[in-house]
Amino acid sequence: MTMSAAEPLENQGPASLEILVDNHRTFLKYLERRVEDRALAEDILQDAFMRIVDRPENAPADEGIVPWFYRVLRNSAIDRLRRRGTAARALEAFARELETHESAQPELEAEICGCVTRLAATLKAEYAEALQAIDVGGQTVKAFAAERGLSPGNAGVRVFRAREALKKRVAESCGTCAEHGCRDCSCQISSA
Fold first, then answer.
1. 187 and 177 in contact (C-beta within 8 Å)?
2. What is d(CA 61, CA 63) in angstroms, rounded to the nearest whole number?
3. Burial zone of 89 (CB within 10 Å; 0-12 exposed, 13-18 middle, 19+ buried)
């Protein structure tokens, strides 16, 4: 089956798409040899087919569809492998950070917790109650809502607003200390 090399895919009709579909197995083998993972090769091929279906005008008007599609596949494989490598490096860096990260000393943790608890007590009673029950006590939002005769959505909104109010209160009270994880906390607790 031959096509006019001067026409873009959208003007060549279904014949050009048929050529690509007919070569599916060949394209898949080509990708498998390069990425060494059948599932990844299938994903790349599927993405490439979707791009052709979504944007047929991107197909070449001056060359054969098959050689052009091989270039699309090659570039897609390279892009996917680069993204995969970047993600793997980021995960490795995060894992190293977790391994070397010191946990807060119990005294400092208790001080921070006490500071936040005192600030939470300065919020509206319904907010303080929600934070105490859910964030400190570990109660689910659904259980909290049922105990207080609220809808789960209403309880969720209440908890969200309570957390936002507490965050604002911590920022007001602790200033830049709060931005850096409340290390060496020396802020003055206000009852505002």
1. yes
2. 6
3. exposed
List of domains in the chain: 9-100 (1.10.1740), 106-179 (1.10.10.10)
Count of all residues that appear for the chain in the document: 192
Q: At what angle do helices 38-54 and 65-100 cross, to 10 degrees?
A: 130
Contacts from 125-131 at CB under 8 Å and sequence distance 24+? 126/158, 126/162, 127/158, 127/161, 127/162, 127/165, 127/166, 128/162, 130/155, 130/158, 130/159, 130/162, 131/159, 131/162, 131/163, 131/166
Distances (CA, A) of 182 to 10, 147, 164: 60, 34, 17
Residue indicated by tokens 């969200």 = 160
Band of residue 4 on the pLDDT scale cut at 50, 70, 90? very low
Reported pTM: 0.42
Q: What was the pLDDT predicted at 145?
A: 92
Per-residue model confidence as pLDDT tens digits over 7-51: 444 444 556 778 888 889 999 999 998 888 899 899 999 988 888
